[in-house]
Each structure stands twice: as structure tokens, then as C-alpha cells.
Write a structure and sequence with these properties.
6 helices, single chain, three-stranded antiparallel beta sheet, five-stranded mixed beta sheet, about 250 residues, alpha+beta
Length: about 250
Amino acid sequence: MSRGPLVLTPLPGLPEVQPGDDLAALIADGLTRAGITPQPGDILVLAQKIVSKAEGRFARLDDVRPSARARALAQQTHKDPRLVELILRESRDVLRAVPGVLIVEHRLGFVCANAGIDRSNVPARGPGEWVLLLPEDPDASADRVRAGLEARYRVPLGVLIIDSHGRAWRLGTVGMAIGLSGVPALVDMRGQPDREGYRLRVTQIAVADELAAAASLMMGQAAEGTPVVHVRGFPYPLAEGRLAHLLRPR
């Protein structure tokens, strides 16, 4: 496969997203400001946070009544028991609980800290402390944004929703895909020859995660305010990937 340049462009000037906002319309405005007309095969990468905000996935800690299990885990991890209760509600299983750390299997199937619940860049929606949960169904969220964009531009596009996750036995977070539409999750290279003629036997490339990490570099993690990145030159054909394709069965 011939490979041209891979170009990632953060979209400028996106406003603070509110519940009920049309993300496809906001992204289209950002594309116009950036002087970009989408072409077939382009991909839009969205930070999870704007999707959660548009879908109203806010929670006020004062409204949460912690269970006995949440209170016990809060004491063990030195975390707010109300936050721990939300983490439990969003999780299938608790995998590690030590001071300062609560690692869970999220109800969507991946492993992450705090069930992806975040306090950073979450504006208060009234009195008290507010947090933001992950989208209910990130694949469906990506489908909706893609449908809105394709209806506007009449070209096939991909949409990727990403979040920052840690990795086993490595420090730091990295952008990973949590919702896909029109973007392959994995590219299977098994059976393909290398330059010496050896046929690959186990190689599967998590191309959605690779792209997520690249886009995360452009977005930043603090006050940068660039939650959408336009991608051109993705070196694989668009395909109907799903989050489930990236999850290793227990």
C-alpha cells in the first residue's frame, strides 16, 4: 500500500459544548474556520469529553448516596465515597484498589481508572461539585456524528471518539479509541510477507488506537481547548470498526 503524508489538523474555535448541542454542526463550523472541505476517507477524531457534554452525562456529587461498598472502597483508596459510588455504577468489576488508585473493568468492557469519570474541564451546572461520565454508547455516538457530517458533505467519512487511558505496567496516559464509526479498529496482517519473505503469524495492528494517540498529541490534556482533530491521509481503507473489536476476551 502506498503511503502519503498523514496530516492532523486541530479545529479552532469550538465553543463550550452544552447538553443537546449538535456536534456535527459544531464540527462543520470548525472545518469552515480551518478552511477544510472534507474529502472521501477523511476522519474526525473527537475527545470523549465533548461527546459526554453534548449527551448530558453530568453528575452532581451531592446527589449521590454512597453504598456500603463504596464507603469501604473510598476508605481504602482515599477517594470521595460519592465518586466511588459513581465508579461502581459504571463498572463491571473492581480490579485494583489501593491508596490513590481505583482500577476497574468499565461496563463497556475496557480497563481504566475511575471508570473514566473526570473532574477536569467540567463546568459547574449549579451548586456543588460536578463530574462527567463516559458516553452511554460511544459507538452509537460516533455513528450519529458521522451521519450528520456525511449528510452535509456527501462523502464517506470516519469518526473516532477517544479518551486518555493508562496501560498495564507503564506510566502515563495515552489516547485510546472508545467509539468508532467508519474507522477500522484492527488491521490483520497475518499471512502478509515481510521484506525477507517471512509470512507474519500474529501481527494485528490496533490502528484506531494508533490514530487516537496521534490525535491526542494534537488535542492536549489541559487548557488547550482543541477537542476535535481532522485527519487526512489515514493509511488504511475506512471500514466498520467497533469498540468490541479492540477488547481482548478474559
